[in-house]
Amino acid sequence: MAQKPSIPKGTRDFNPAEVAKRNFIFDRIKTEFKKFGFQPIETPSFENSDTLMGKYGEEGDRLIFKILNSGDFLKKVDNEAYENRDSLKITSSISEKALRYDLTVPFARYVVQHQNEIDFPFKRYQIQPVWRADRPQKGRFREFFQCDADVVGSKSLWQEVEFVQLYDVVFSALKLEGVTIKINNRKVLSGFAEVIGEKDKLIDFTVALDKLDKIGEEGVKKEMLEKGISENAIEKIQPIFSLKGSFTEKIAGIKEILSSSETGKEGIKELEFIEKAIVEMPLKTAKLDLDVTLARGLNYYTGAIFEVSAPENVKMGSIGGGGRYDDLTGIFGLKDMSGVGISFGLDRIYLVLEELDLFPTAVTQNTKALFINFGDKEALYALKAVNKLRSESVIAELFPDAAKMKKQMNYANKREIPFVILAGEEEMEAEKFTLKNMKTGEQQKLDFADLVNVLG
C-alpha cells in the first residue's frame, strides 16, 4: 500500500479560500506601498552562501537552509574534515548556495550589484517567500512570506516618519485598528551601555533588556549579572524598568538617565523629531509608543528601531518591525549608504485578521452561476452564454459532464454557488434561460439581458 504523502514541518498547503485571503492582504499592502512611491523588485529564492553566511549572527547562520551542490557533492570534501565530522568545513565544501533567510541582505546585495542603474534615494518594496530552519510553532513557520519596504540613500528622518504613517494606513486599510507601533533608537541603547560603563557589553545588555516583557525585571537583572554586568551598573539604569506614561513623559525620563551620554542624547533628538511630526499629522487608528527595551536587529540597526504589536485583545508576537541601518551595503563593499526599512509579518497578520473576523465576506470570490450540462448540444448553447457573462465580469462556469441532475446540484451546493442555470431544449427554442436561486429555490425564465442584470 502506497504511503500517504506529507509535507515538511513548518510548511503549509493553502486552499482556495486561504489563498484569496492572503491575496487580499497582499493587495492592500501593495496599494499603500505604491501610494508612498515604493517600486517593486524581486530577487532569487536562493543566493550564494557567502552572500548570506555571517550576516545574521551565529544563531541566524544555523537557521539558514543550505542547498547541496549538484552531482557528486562529496568530491571536494577534505578527508580530514570528513573523518573529524567537522561540519563547518564540510558544509563549505558541499554547499555553495542557500535559500534566502530574509529579504534585507539580498536587497543590500541587489543595491550594490545594480548601484549604477539605481537612482538614489531608492524606494523599493518586495513580497517574496523566505526560509528558516526554525522550530515550528504558532505563527512561526519554516517557509513564509516577508513583505519589506526600504529606502536607501537618504539619512533624512522624514523617512522614519513616513514609515510610521505607512504602518498606520496599511493596518487601517485592513480594518485592524488599535495596533501599537513601538519605537526605540539604537543610540539610546548605546547611551544606556555608555552611562553604566559597559560599552563593550552592549549586545549582552540589550538582549537581556529586550526580554523584560517575557521574564520580568528580576529575570532581566539576573541575566545581566550572569553576563558580567555589575549590580552598581544595573542600579544606574533602574528607572527604565518603571518607565511609564505618554511618549513625552518617557522621553523626559530617559533624558535624566542619558544626560551624560552624547550618543544617547542624539538618539533622544531623533525620537523627538519623529514624535513631533506624528503629533502634527495624527495617525488614523494606530498608536505610536516609545519602548526603550526594544532591541531587535542590533547586528545592523544603527538608529530608529520599530516593532508593531497586534491589538491588546490578541495574543500574538510582533506583526511588523524594522529600523535604520547606516551601512548595511558596506558588507558588500558599498560604504556610507544609509537606509531605513520596515517589514510586515504577513502570516501573523493573517492569523490576527482571522481571529478578529476582519476578512470581508466578498474576499473569497466564488462562481456566481453554474450552468447545468444536459448534453453536447445544450452545453454549447450554455457555454456561449458563459463566455458572454464572463465578458460582463460575471463569474460563471459550465459543469463539464452531462451527469445526473442531482450530482450537478450537489456540486453547486458544496461549492456554495448561489445560482444554477438550466438551459434545455425548451429554453433553447425560446432563447431563454431558467435561473434557480439555490438558497430560496425560486426559479425564473430570463433572456440574456435580464440574466446579466440579475447576476451582474
From TrEMBL:
Catalysed reactions, as listed in the record: tRNA(His) + L-histidine + ATP = L-histidyl-tRNA(His) + AMP + diphosphate + H(+)
Enzyme class: ligase
Keywords: Aminoacyl-tRNA synthetase, ATP-binding, Cytoplasm, Ligase, Nucleotide-binding, Protein biosynthesis
Residues where L-histidine binds: 102-104, 132, 146, 150, 296, 300-301
GO cellular component: cytoplasm
Entry keyword annotation includes Protein biosynthesis: yes
Subcellular localization(s) per the UniProt record: Cytoplasm
EC numbers for this chain: 6.1.1.21
GO biological process, one term: histidyl-tRNA aminoacylation
A single MF term (Gene Ontology): ATP binding
PROSITE patterns: AA_TRNA_LIGASE_II
Residue ranges of domain Aminoacyl-transfer RNA synthetases class-II family profile in the record: 1-400
Highest taxon of source: Bacteria
Gene3D superfamilies hit by this protein: Anticodon-binding domain, Bira Bifunctional Protein, Domain 2
Family note: Belongs to the class-II aminoacyl-tRNA synthetase family.
Listed NCBIfam families: hisS
Subunit composition and interactions: Homodimer.
Annotated PANTHER family: HISTIDINE--TRNA LIGASE, HISTIDYL-TRNA SYNTHETASE
HAMAP family membership: His_tRNA_synth (MF_00127)
Name this polypeptide is given: Histidine--tRNA ligase
